[in-house]
Fold this sequence. Notes:
Elements lengths: L3 E6 L5 H10 L4 E5 L11 E4 L15 E4 L5 H4 L10 E2 L4 H19 L2 H9 L15 E5 L3 H12 L3 E6 L8 E5 L4 H5 L4 E4 L13 H6 L4 E5 L8 H9 L3 E6 L19 E3 L9 H16 L15
Parallel strand pairs: 1-2, 1-3, 3-4, 4-5, 6-7, 6-9, 7-8, 9-10, 10-11, 11-12
The protein binds NADPH dihydro-nicotinamide-adenine-dinucleotide phosphate and oxalic acid.
Amino acid sequence: MTKKRLLLAGMEDYFETWRRAADSTAAGLDLVPYVPGQAFPGFPYLLIWRPVPELFASLPDLRVIFCLGAGTERLIADPSIPARLPLVRMVEPGLTQCMVDYVLWRVLYHHRRMWELEEAQAQARWAQHLYPAAWERKVGILGLGTLGQACAEKLAEFEFQVRGWSRSPKSVAKVACFAGTETLGEFLAGLDILVCLLPLTPETKGILNADLFARLAPRAALVNAGRGGHLVDDDLLAALADGRMGSATLDVFHREPLPPDHPFWLHPRVFVTPHYASETHPPSALVEIARQIERFEQGATLEHVVDRQRGY
Ligand code: NDP
Ligand code: OXD
Protein backbone atom coordinates (compact mmCIF):
# COMPACT_ATOMS: atom_id res chain seq x y z
CA MET A 1 0.00 0.00 0.00
CA THR A 2 1.36 3.44 -0.88
CA LYS A 3 1.83 5.59 2.15
CA LYS A 4 0.02 8.93 2.30
CA ARG A 5 2.32 11.88 2.74
CA LEU A 6 1.71 14.16 5.70
CA LEU A 7 3.69 17.39 5.97
CA LEU A 8 4.68 18.52 9.48
CA ALA A 9 5.37 22.23 9.83
CA GLY A 10 6.73 24.23 12.77
CA MET A 11 7.43 21.10 14.81
CA GLU A 12 11.17 20.74 14.23
CA ASP A 13 11.96 19.73 17.82
CA TYR A 14 9.48 16.86 17.69
CA PHE A 15 9.82 15.67 14.14
CA GLU A 16 11.94 12.61 14.95
CA THR A 17 9.50 11.52 17.69
CA TRP A 18 6.66 11.73 15.21
CA ARG A 19 8.60 9.93 12.50
CA ARG A 20 9.43 7.08 14.90
CA ALA A 21 5.76 6.90 15.88
CA ALA A 22 4.76 6.75 12.21
CA ASP A 23 7.22 3.92 11.65
CA SER A 24 5.87 2.02 14.64
CA THR A 25 2.19 2.17 13.69
CA ALA A 26 0.23 0.74 10.82
CA ALA A 27 -1.21 4.20 10.10
CA GLY A 28 0.40 4.14 6.65
CA LEU A 29 1.64 7.73 6.80
CA ASP A 30 4.91 9.06 5.45
CA LEU A 31 5.91 12.10 7.49
CA VAL A 32 7.80 14.86 5.73
CA PRO A 33 9.30 17.91 7.47
CA TYR A 34 8.44 21.35 6.10
CA VAL A 35 11.47 23.38 5.09
CA PRO A 36 10.97 27.18 5.00
CA GLY A 37 11.44 28.66 1.55
CA GLN A 38 10.87 25.34 -0.23
CA ALA A 39 7.69 24.58 -2.23
CA PHE A 40 5.64 21.45 -1.48
CA PRO A 41 3.43 20.73 -4.49
CA GLY A 42 1.45 17.50 -4.31
CA PHE A 43 0.96 17.62 -0.51
CA PRO A 44 -2.75 17.54 0.40
CA TYR A 45 -2.33 17.03 4.17
CA LEU A 46 -0.63 19.21 6.77
CA LEU A 47 -0.13 18.84 10.53
CA ILE A 48 0.65 22.03 12.46
CA TRP A 49 0.45 23.30 16.02
CA ARG A 50 1.18 26.99 15.72
CA PRO A 51 1.11 29.47 12.81
CA VAL A 52 4.13 29.21 10.52
CA PRO A 53 4.95 32.33 8.45
CA GLU A 54 4.64 32.02 4.65
CA LEU A 55 3.64 28.37 4.91
CA PHE A 56 0.52 28.35 2.79
CA ALA A 57 2.06 29.96 -0.30
CA SER A 58 4.28 26.88 -0.60
CA LEU A 59 1.41 24.36 -0.44
CA PRO A 60 -0.60 24.78 -3.68
CA ASP A 61 -2.34 21.37 -3.36
CA LEU A 62 -3.25 21.48 0.30
CA ARG A 63 -6.72 20.12 1.11
CA VAL A 64 -6.88 19.50 4.87
CA ILE A 65 -5.13 21.09 7.85
CA PHE A 66 -4.82 18.94 10.95
CA CYS A 67 -4.08 20.77 14.21
CA LEU A 68 -1.75 18.96 16.58
CA GLY A 69 -3.81 20.06 19.58
CA ALA A 70 -7.42 20.35 20.67
CA GLY A 71 -7.22 24.10 21.15
CA THR A 72 -7.09 25.87 17.80
CA GLU A 73 -7.39 29.52 18.81
CA ARG A 74 -3.94 30.47 17.48
CA LEU A 75 -4.61 28.93 14.08
CA ILE A 76 -8.07 30.50 13.91
CA ALA A 77 -6.47 33.88 14.57
CA ASP A 78 -3.90 33.40 11.76
CA PRO A 79 -5.16 35.34 8.72
CA SER A 80 -2.80 33.46 6.40
CA ILE A 81 -4.73 30.17 6.75
CA PRO A 82 -7.00 29.87 3.70
CA ALA A 83 -10.65 29.98 4.83
CA ARG A 84 -11.63 27.38 2.21
CA LEU A 85 -9.53 24.64 3.85
CA PRO A 86 -11.00 22.51 6.63
CA LEU A 87 -9.16 22.84 9.93
CA VAL A 88 -9.46 19.66 12.01
CA ARG A 89 -8.78 19.82 15.76
CA MET A 90 -7.12 16.93 17.56
CA VAL A 91 -9.37 14.30 19.08
CA GLU A 92 -7.47 11.15 19.93
CA PRO A 93 -7.57 8.67 22.82
CA GLY A 94 -4.12 9.53 24.22
CA LEU A 95 -4.97 13.22 24.60
CA THR A 96 -8.29 12.40 26.25
CA GLN A 97 -6.85 9.81 28.64
CA CYS A 98 -4.09 12.12 29.85
CA MET A 99 -6.57 14.91 30.52
CA VAL A 100 -8.74 12.51 32.50
CA ASP A 101 -5.67 11.51 34.59
CA TYR A 102 -4.78 15.13 35.20
CA VAL A 103 -8.24 16.33 36.16
CA LEU A 104 -8.84 13.36 38.43
CA TRP A 105 -5.43 13.89 40.09
CA ARG A 106 -6.02 17.60 40.67
CA VAL A 107 -9.63 17.21 41.84
CA LEU A 108 -8.56 14.55 44.35
CA TYR A 109 -5.69 16.80 45.46
CA HIS A 110 -8.02 19.71 46.19
CA HIS A 111 -10.73 17.43 47.58
CA ARG A 112 -8.31 15.95 50.18
CA ARG A 113 -6.50 19.33 50.74
CA MET A 114 -3.20 17.60 50.12
CA TRP A 115 -1.20 20.80 50.46
CA GLU A 116 -2.01 20.90 54.18
CA LEU A 117 -0.31 17.52 54.56
CA GLU A 118 2.65 18.68 52.45
CA GLU A 119 3.06 21.79 54.60
CA ALA A 120 2.76 19.70 57.76
CA GLN A 121 5.34 17.19 56.55
CA ALA A 122 7.80 20.00 55.81
CA GLN A 123 7.51 20.86 59.52
CA ALA A 124 7.48 17.18 60.72
CA ARG A 125 3.98 17.89 62.05
CA TRP A 126 1.29 15.17 62.42
CA ALA A 127 -1.72 17.08 61.10
CA GLN A 128 -4.82 15.01 60.54
CA HIS A 129 -7.77 16.92 59.14
CA LEU A 130 -11.38 16.08 58.44
CA TYR A 131 -12.71 16.04 54.92
CA PRO A 132 -16.04 15.26 53.32
CA ALA A 133 -16.75 12.12 51.32
CA ALA A 134 -16.51 12.45 47.54
CA TRP A 135 -20.29 12.28 47.24
CA GLU A 136 -20.54 15.41 49.39
CA ARG A 137 -18.34 17.44 46.99
CA LYS A 138 -19.85 19.37 44.11
CA VAL A 139 -17.51 19.43 41.14
CA GLY A 140 -18.33 21.42 37.99
CA ILE A 141 -16.77 21.21 34.56
CA LEU A 142 -16.93 24.21 32.26
CA GLY A 143 -16.97 22.67 28.78
CA LEU A 144 -18.61 19.31 28.20
CA GLY A 145 -16.86 18.51 24.93
CA THR A 146 -14.52 15.64 24.16
CA LEU A 147 -12.30 16.26 27.18
CA GLY A 148 -14.86 17.69 29.60
CA GLN A 149 -17.25 14.82 29.08
CA ALA A 150 -14.58 12.16 29.61
CA CYS A 151 -13.46 13.91 32.82
CA ALA A 152 -17.04 14.31 34.05
CA GLU A 153 -17.70 10.60 33.56
CA LYS A 154 -14.54 9.65 35.46
CA LEU A 155 -15.33 12.00 38.36
CA ALA A 156 -18.87 10.62 38.54
CA GLU A 157 -17.36 7.13 38.73
CA PHE A 158 -15.46 8.37 41.81
CA GLU A 159 -18.82 9.39 43.31
CA PHE A 160 -18.38 13.18 43.15
CA GLN A 161 -21.55 15.19 42.53
CA VAL A 162 -20.71 16.28 39.00
CA ARG A 163 -22.15 19.13 36.94
CA GLY A 164 -21.18 20.11 33.41
CA TRP A 165 -21.77 23.24 31.35
CA SER A 166 -21.77 23.58 27.57
CA ARG A 167 -23.28 25.68 24.82
CA SER A 168 -25.66 23.02 23.50
CA PRO A 169 -27.65 20.60 25.67
CA LYS A 170 -25.95 17.34 26.65
CA SER A 171 -26.92 14.15 28.39
CA VAL A 172 -24.18 12.38 30.35
CA ALA A 173 -24.92 9.57 32.82
CA LYS A 174 -24.66 10.68 36.48
CA VAL A 175 -23.77 14.24 35.44
CA ALA A 176 -26.13 17.21 35.85
CA CYS A 177 -25.87 18.99 32.51
CA PHE A 178 -26.43 22.74 32.03
CA ALA A 179 -26.43 24.51 28.68
CA GLY A 180 -26.17 28.15 27.68
CA THR A 181 -25.25 31.43 29.33
CA GLU A 182 -28.61 31.67 31.10
CA THR A 183 -27.83 28.52 33.12
CA LEU A 184 -24.29 29.52 34.13
CA GLY A 185 -25.37 30.88 37.54
CA GLU A 186 -27.30 27.73 38.40
CA PHE A 187 -24.39 25.55 37.25
CA LEU A 188 -21.88 27.45 39.39
CA ALA A 189 -24.00 27.82 42.54
CA GLY A 190 -22.11 26.36 45.51
CA LEU A 191 -19.54 24.33 43.52
CA ASP A 192 -16.62 23.16 45.70
CA ILE A 193 -14.27 22.50 42.79
CA LEU A 194 -14.49 24.08 39.34
CA VAL A 195 -12.59 22.66 36.36
CA CYS A 196 -12.24 24.73 33.18
CA LEU A 197 -11.98 22.79 29.92
CA LEU A 198 -13.41 25.39 27.58
CA PRO A 199 -11.89 26.49 24.29
CA LEU A 200 -10.66 30.10 24.23
CA THR A 201 -13.13 32.17 22.21
CA PRO A 202 -14.39 35.78 22.42
CA GLU A 203 -17.28 34.45 24.59
CA THR A 204 -15.14 32.47 27.03
CA LYS A 205 -12.20 34.90 27.39
CA GLY A 206 -11.98 36.12 31.01
CA ILE A 207 -14.84 33.87 32.17
CA LEU A 208 -12.89 32.89 35.32
CA ASN A 209 -13.33 36.24 37.06
CA ALA A 210 -14.46 37.77 40.37
CA ASP A 211 -18.19 37.49 39.51
CA LEU A 212 -17.82 33.80 38.78
CA PHE A 213 -15.73 33.13 41.91
CA ALA A 214 -18.43 34.83 44.02
CA ARG A 215 -20.95 32.17 42.96
CA LEU A 216 -18.87 29.18 44.08
CA ALA A 217 -18.80 27.71 47.59
CA PRO A 218 -16.57 29.65 49.99
CA ARG A 219 -12.89 28.61 49.63
CA ALA A 220 -13.64 26.69 46.45
CA ALA A 221 -10.83 25.28 44.31
CA LEU A 222 -10.20 26.09 40.65
CA VAL A 223 -8.50 23.81 38.14
CA ASN A 224 -7.78 25.64 34.89
CA ALA A 225 -6.60 23.37 32.09
CA GLY A 226 -8.38 25.31 29.31
CA ARG A 227 -6.36 28.37 28.36
CA GLY A 228 -4.67 31.17 30.31
CA GLY A 229 -6.96 33.70 28.62
CA HIS A 230 -9.94 32.24 30.49
CA LEU A 231 -8.60 33.52 33.80
CA VAL A 232 -8.42 37.06 35.13
CA ASP A 233 -5.23 36.54 37.14
CA ASP A 234 -5.71 39.51 39.48
CA ASP A 235 -9.27 38.43 40.32
CA LEU A 236 -8.01 35.00 41.36
CA LEU A 237 -5.21 36.50 43.47
CA ALA A 238 -7.71 38.83 45.18
CA ALA A 239 -10.19 36.00 45.79
CA LEU A 240 -7.44 33.82 47.30
CA ALA A 241 -6.32 36.74 49.48
CA ASP A 242 -9.79 37.40 50.90
CA GLY A 243 -10.60 33.69 51.36
CA ARG A 244 -13.39 33.60 48.79
CA MET A 245 -11.31 31.07 46.83
CA GLY A 246 -9.28 28.44 48.68
CA SER A 247 -6.79 27.08 46.17
CA ALA A 248 -6.07 26.66 42.48
CA THR A 249 -4.25 24.44 40.06
CA LEU A 250 -3.25 26.31 36.92
CA ASP A 251 -1.84 24.58 33.85
CA VAL A 252 -2.24 27.33 31.27
CA PHE A 253 -1.29 31.00 31.37
CA HIS A 254 -1.57 34.28 29.49
CA ARG A 255 2.14 34.04 28.78
CA GLU A 256 3.84 30.67 28.47
CA PRO A 257 6.32 29.92 29.88
CA LEU A 258 4.88 31.69 32.93
CA PRO A 259 7.31 34.57 33.63
CA PRO A 260 9.58 33.87 36.66
CA ASP A 261 8.32 36.94 38.53
CA HIS A 262 4.61 36.02 38.24
CA PRO A 263 2.97 35.85 41.71
CA PHE A 264 1.44 32.45 40.89
CA TRP A 265 4.83 30.75 41.15
CA LEU A 266 5.33 31.35 44.86
CA HIS A 267 1.71 31.53 46.00
CA PRO A 268 1.16 28.92 48.75
CA ARG A 269 -2.30 27.99 47.44
CA VAL A 270 -1.57 28.03 43.72
CA PHE A 271 -0.17 24.90 42.09
CA VAL A 272 1.44 25.51 38.73
CA THR A 273 1.91 22.87 36.07
CA PRO A 274 3.66 23.85 32.80
CA HIS A 275 0.91 23.33 30.16
CA TYR A 276 1.29 19.72 30.95
CA ALA A 277 -2.26 18.57 31.68
CA SER A 278 -2.40 16.57 28.50
CA GLU A 279 -0.63 16.14 25.23
CA THR A 280 -1.21 14.53 21.92
CA HIS A 281 0.29 11.05 21.70
CA PRO A 282 1.90 10.61 18.30
CA PRO A 283 1.09 6.90 17.75
CA SER A 284 -2.62 7.16 18.54
CA ALA A 285 -2.88 10.59 16.89
CA LEU A 286 -1.41 9.27 13.63
CA VAL A 287 -3.89 6.41 13.59
CA GLU A 288 -6.66 8.99 14.02
CA ILE A 289 -5.27 11.25 11.26
CA ALA A 290 -4.98 8.25 8.91
CA ARG A 291 -8.61 7.35 9.68
CA GLN A 292 -9.74 10.88 8.85
CA ILE A 293 -7.71 10.92 5.60
CA GLU A 294 -9.34 7.64 4.63
CA ARG A 295 -12.79 9.12 5.27
CA PHE A 296 -11.92 12.25 3.32
CA GLU A 297 -10.65 10.29 0.33
CA GLN A 298 -13.80 8.19 0.30
CA GLY A 299 -15.92 11.34 0.17
CA ALA A 300 -17.22 11.14 3.76
CA THR A 301 -17.29 14.29 5.89
CA LEU A 302 -14.31 14.98 8.10
CA GLU A 303 -14.96 14.87 11.84
CA HIS A 304 -13.97 17.53 14.39
CA VAL A 305 -13.74 20.33 11.85
CA VAL A 306 -13.38 23.68 13.59
CA ASP A 307 -16.12 26.24 13.10
CA ARG A 308 -13.97 29.34 12.72
CA GLN A 309 -16.90 31.73 13.21
CA ARG A 310 -17.81 30.07 16.50
CA GLY A 311 -14.14 29.97 17.50
CA TYR A 312 -13.70 26.25 18.23
P1 NDP B 1 -14.47 20.52 22.49
O1 NDP B 1 -14.64 21.45 21.36
O2 NDP B 1 -14.78 19.08 22.31
O3 NDP B 1 -15.36 21.01 23.73
C1 NDP B 1 -15.53 22.34 24.06
C2 NDP B 1 -16.70 22.43 25.03
O4 NDP B 1 -16.83 23.80 25.45
C3 NDP B 1 -18.02 22.04 24.37
O5 NDP B 1 -18.82 21.33 25.29
C4 NDP B 1 -18.65 23.38 24.05
O6 NDP B 1 -20.07 23.36 24.01
C5 NDP B 1 -18.18 24.20 25.24
N1 NDP B 1 -18.26 25.63 24.96
C6 NDP B 1 -17.58 26.34 24.02
N2 NDP B 1 -17.96 27.63 24.06
C7 NDP B 1 -18.89 27.72 25.03
C8 NDP B 1 -19.67 28.79 25.52
N3 NDP B 1 -19.58 30.04 25.02
N4 NDP B 1 -20.57 28.54 26.49
C9 NDP B 1 -20.69 27.27 27.00
N5 NDP B 1 -19.97 26.21 26.58
C10 NDP B 1 -19.08 26.44 25.60
O7 NDP B 1 -12.98 20.72 23.00
P2 NDP B 1 -12.07 19.71 23.81
O8 NDP B 1 -12.86 19.14 24.93
O9 NDP B 1 -11.40 18.78 22.90
O10 NDP B 1 -10.96 20.72 24.38
C11 NDP B 1 -11.32 21.79 25.22
C12 NDP B 1 -10.14 22.72 25.46
O11 NDP B 1 -9.20 22.12 26.34
C13 NDP B 1 -9.30 23.07 24.24
O12 NDP B 1 -9.92 24.04 23.43
C14 NDP B 1 -8.02 23.57 24.87
O13 NDP B 1 -8.14 24.94 25.14
C15 NDP B 1 -7.96 22.81 26.20
N6 NDP B 1 -6.88 21.81 26.20
C16 NDP B 1 -5.86 21.97 27.10
C17 NDP B 1 -4.85 21.07 27.17
C18 NDP B 1 -3.80 21.19 28.21
O14 NDP B 1 -2.82 20.42 28.19
N7 NDP B 1 -3.93 22.12 29.14
C19 NDP B 1 -4.78 19.90 26.28
C20 NDP B 1 -5.90 19.82 25.38
C21 NDP B 1 -6.91 20.75 25.35
P3 NDP B 1 -20.83 22.48 22.87
O15 NDP B 1 -20.56 21.04 23.24
O16 NDP B 1 -22.24 22.86 23.02
O17 NDP B 1 -20.19 22.87 21.56
C1 OXD C 1 -4.15 21.26 23.17
C2 OXD C 1 -3.14 21.60 24.14
O1 OXD C 1 -4.97 22.12 22.89
O2 OXD C 1 -2.14 20.86 24.24
O3 OXD C 1 -4.17 20.12 22.69
O4 OXD C 1 -3.27 22.56 24.89
